[in-house]
Amino acid sequence: MKKALALALALAGSAGTAYAADWTPPKVPDPIPDNLTWYGITPIGALDLGYAYQTNGRPLGNVVSGLEFSPYTTTRNYTGQAISTIAHSGLTQSFLGVKIEEPLGAGWAAIGRADTGVDPLRGTLSDGCSSFVQNAGIPYNQQNSSGDTSRCGQAFNGQLWGGVTNHQYGTLTVGRQNSFELDNIAKYDPMELSYAFSLLGVSGTNGGMGSTQAARWDNSAKYVYDFDGFAHIGGMFAQGGDGSGFFGNSYGVNIGGNYRGFAIDATYTKEHGAVNLQSAVNDALNSTTLAASISDNTAWSVMARYTFNLGGGYIPPASYPTKAEMKAPLQQDRLVLFAGYTNISQSNPNTPVTFGQAQGDYALTSIPGDLPDNNAFTTAKVLNFFWVGARYELAWGLSFTGAYYHVNQNAFIADSKFTDTAACLANGASKVDCAGAYDQVSFLTDYALNKHLDLYAGATWARVTNGLAAGFPGTPAAKTFGGVNFSGTATSIDTATVMTGFRIRL
To answer: 142 CB contacts (<8 Å, ≥6 apart)?
Structure first.
């Protein structure tokens, strides 16, 4: 942690000194055109690669080649190993896709988006579910990286939707879309859903209202009406089904607004029959099915940010500026403050699920005695997410961001088994249904050399305690598996990560 903070502070100090001395940033040619649109179709994408060091983690997997950046995870497989490796998607999930916007006349336009996450180190589609199959039934100390996700090898594991928009009548889209919650945390997360430096990015728990598989809604319709940029309101409905992340119908509403640098959004979401993958250690050895619990999720959130335009730092355009440069707003230094809160409650499903598929058509375990668990939330499991942060942006492309994330979990009853509060207090990390907490502090320096290329370096430290640390090797009552006892006395697990890299965006 000390090394991580030292690196972040050194970057900030050196950059601040350079700016104070009126250092002129290097001009880096940008070979990518600003406009690649053809008949309303624009290619989009990102390539994010770098190098990372982690004090406590798991080796990279054969399927999930990236680090498990945070100990807020279902895999519970951190075993004290320091990892130093090439890594990807530190700031942004590497992806490929297209977006569509084509005028239809009378103020109407056709819009759409199709994108898919990729693993640039392996040249494959992102497929977190297959990592559970890879690690099925393997003891903790032999597992490699894995993670629950809604990206499970589908051809379009990101978004795939189309619709129409009109300034007077609003925007209607249909298909596979981000939930309102995922859309909003992308706007109000200081780290912009960074995998390496943000809990909100590396874990889909918040975006999926408690269930990572439900962060992106298949078979959904979303309507948003914007009141001239001052306020907006929207509704969303999804017809759940097999292989869609949740089995029952779900809906969400969103309301927000903007005024003189201040922006705020509030959401309410209800999901039925959501899929929650369990640790791969709970699967049978060589199993090709996935152990899971099923829940009905209720969530509400409020998020806000405030932007101070500080002036100064303006770089005059070239002697013969382009029309686009002449129309562009003046470049100014900015300070942006962020804050957010989400409350999530998970309960047993009203309609039990006894068989079916997770995202990507991975079959859920359905052998007798090992069905999907429909009683994992006998009393409601409640998660509270809090975060705050700030970003200072210099007009010529350098920015500094700091953020703090906190989660707390209540003590709840799972599978109709009484939760012994005294035992939780005495051995806080002994059970997943005991109360627990998560804390993360992150620092990031990012330099945009041009519109399409930026370099970054940052550091983060994260810790889970008590119930949220349950099942990690070295914690009380961790599993005995294959004759090996992984239990210990620690009631918390922590890790620090330092990463530097580059990102290319279309």
So the answer is: none
